[in-house]
Design goal:
One of its GO terms (molecular function) is metal ion binding. It comes from Alosa alosa. By secondary structure, this protein is α+β, with helices and mostly antiparallel strands. Helix content is 33%, strand content 13%. The chain has two domains: 91 residues, Transcription Termination Factor Rho, Rna-binding Domain, Chain A, Domain 1; 201 residues, Ribonuclease H-like superfamily/Ribonuclease H (Nucleotidyltransferase, domain 5, 2-Layer Sandwich), CATH 3.30.420.10. It is built from ten helices and eight strands. Helix 1 runs antiparallel to helix 3 and helix 2 crosses helix 3.
Length: 342
């Protein structure tokens, strides 16, 4: 199974920080309304003489300098004053505050709306559970046994719906004791479930009912590369289906998180990301739907902190490849029922 599915242990409390001894950075003239509780996404200016040439970026750099010199208590107090989330490690708090002031300084431009970070109307968080052994042979064929989706509305920054079905494996229909213990999925659950082609058809119908890819722009998001490049890839081959085009590109949140908060990729396991954001795992670890919910919570926090979540991986001729940040953000195509391999 995927190594990123970790148990979670602790949650720092979101207490009211002490207000004494805090360096006042209001002199940065951010123009933010006093006591404003919501940070609306504001796009970056596109300077006519090259990026960062506009004077506003000098003001942002000044603000960043003040923030870099603040202690963790000072950061938390300033965030509390601005009615922003005060949870997380120091680097996360700094990034959150910098993003806030940057958004307040930059001018809203309809022509630049794409730069708000809301490249997609909806993000579908997927986290498969698959058959496994305690020690998987290199040629082990993982079969999907749980297909969960958590739907994020990037405009309201909320989880708006979920989908979950169990799947009956066919190559190895009997689950190992290790798999049952790890995932909480029992033999009866999969015995009573449909095979993957039927479940995938219902997934497609669910996505179509949401008008994703037609009325609304959307993409998929996963915790790592395995869900799409390995689990779904293997499962489609086993089931004699073509790999669905709507799942060829996705956001690997580990990459996005590491790049945004400037942390090593080794510190981007689900447990580490939650902990650094001051969040606690909710639910049962290795339950696909619960894992997807917690991944969605991380994605929502990143959007709130100003991260521009965008597709960064794709599958090309069965091979995993990265998507350069310079590539224009594209939404997934409209979902269609799976076709058989010829």
């Amino acid at each position: 199974m995927e190594e990123q599915k970790e148990n979670i242990h602790h949650q720092p409390e979101n207490k009211n920080p002490a207000e004494s001894g805090v360096r006042d950075i209001s002199l940065m003239k951010t123009g933010c309304p006093p006591g404003g509780s919501t940070v609306d996404p504001v796009p970056a200016i596109s300077p006519s003489h090259g990026e960062f040439s506009d004077p506003v970026y000098k003001e942002i750099a000044l603000a960043n300098g003040h923030i870099n010199r603040m202690s963790r208590d000072e950061l938390r107090a300033k965030l509390y004053e601005l009615k922003l989330d005060t949870r997380g490690v120091k680097d996360v708090l700094k990034k959150r505050l910098k993003s806030y002031y940057k958004k307040q300084k930059l001018t809203l431009s309809t022509a630049e709306a794409e730069k708000t970070g809301t490249f997609y109307d909806f993000i579908c968080v997927v986290d498969f559970e698959a058959t496994c052994e305690e020690s998987n042979p290199l040629d082990f064929e993982h079969e999907i046994i749980e297909f969960p989706i958590v739907l994020i509305d990037t405009h309201t920054l909320e989880i708006v719906d979920t989908f979950q079905e169990y799947v009956r494996p066919e190559v190895n229909p009997k689950l190992s004791d290790f798999c049952v213990q790890l995932t909480g999925i029992t033999q009866k659950m999969v015995d009573d479930a449909d095979t993957f082609p039927s479940v995938l058809r219902r997934v497609v119908s669910w996505l179509q009912d949401k008008e994703l890819g037609t009325k609304y722009r959307y993409t998929l998001l996963t915790d790592g590369s395995w869900d799409m490049s390995k689990f779904l890839n293997i499962q489609c081959r086993i089931s004699g289906l073509r790999y669905p085009p709507f799942a060829r590109k996705w956001i690997n949140i580990r990459k996005s998180y590491g790049n945004f908060y400037k942390v090593p990729r080794t510190n981007t396991k689900l447990s580490s990301m939650l902990e650094k954001l001051g969040l606690q795992y909710e639910g049962r670890p290795h339950c696909g739907l619960d894992d997807a919910r917690n991944i969605a919570r991380i994605a929502l926090r990143m959007l709130q902190d100003g991260c521009q979540l965008r597709v960064n991986e794709h599958l090309h001729e069965g091979q995993l490849q990265g998507v350069p940040s310079s590539a224009p953000p594209e939404g997934a195509p409209p979902p269609h029922n799976p076709k058989g391999r010829h």
